[in-house]
Amino acid sequence: MLGILNLLFGSFTRKLEGLISVSMLTVVQQLIAKSRKALLIVISSFVFAALLAAGVIIMVLEASAQYDTRGVIYFSALLTSASILSAISLAVLTFILWPRSKPIIPAAAFQSQPSARPNSPLEDTLAMLLNEVVKYVKDKNKPEPEPETDKPSDASFKSSQNGYNPDTRN
Q: Is the confidence at residue 7, as pLDDT, over 90?
């Protein structure tokens, strides 16, 4: 599981390499490293919640199909498998989300060392990231200046460019 997360984080940081500077890239990598455990908890919660939902849906469908055909519900292989899937998923979700006396992620991991600055490191990191992205977008979308040419500004030249000359009449 951690290998998959490392692959995802690695591709995420590789996509940002062209957008941000090297110093900003190291800050983003440090932020990802500190939030890895929280992200792992969130992703695993979503996965086991999906498995729980799938198990319950399979149980309901199989039980209703048995009741429609035979009028009785019995534990077939599919109904038993769905029940086990639901029970295991519920147990893992309970383990992940149950409040503990000792937190999985210590609060000290998210607290910074006391500094003279009033802003938190996360705010500074996000501000630097946004500034880098805005600067990159502005540089990328900046229109190229058109070369100036010496064109007369009188009305006869402009009208001759459009195919109409007021001096010639038909």
A: no
Nearby residues of 120 by Cβ (< 8 Å), 6 or more positions away: 112
* Local confidence band at 110 (pLDDT 50, 70, 90 cut-offs): low
* Token pair recorded at residue 113: 């060392």
Whole-model pTM above 0.90? Answer: no
Pairwise CA distance, residues 2 & 25, whole Å: 21
Distance of CA 84 to the CA centre of its chain: 33
pLDDT per residue as tens digits for the range 38-69: 888 888 999 999 999 999 999 999 999 999 99
DSSP the chain: -HHHHHHHHHHHHHHHTTTS-HHHHHHHHHHHHHHHHHHHHHHHHHHHHHHHHHHHHHHHHHHHHHHHHHSS----HHHHHHHHHHHHHHHHHHHHHS--SS-SS-GGGTPPPP-S-SS-HHHHHHHHHHHHHHHHHHHHHPPPPPPP-----SHHHHHHHTT--TT---
Inform me whether the pLDDT recorded for 92 exceeds 90: yes
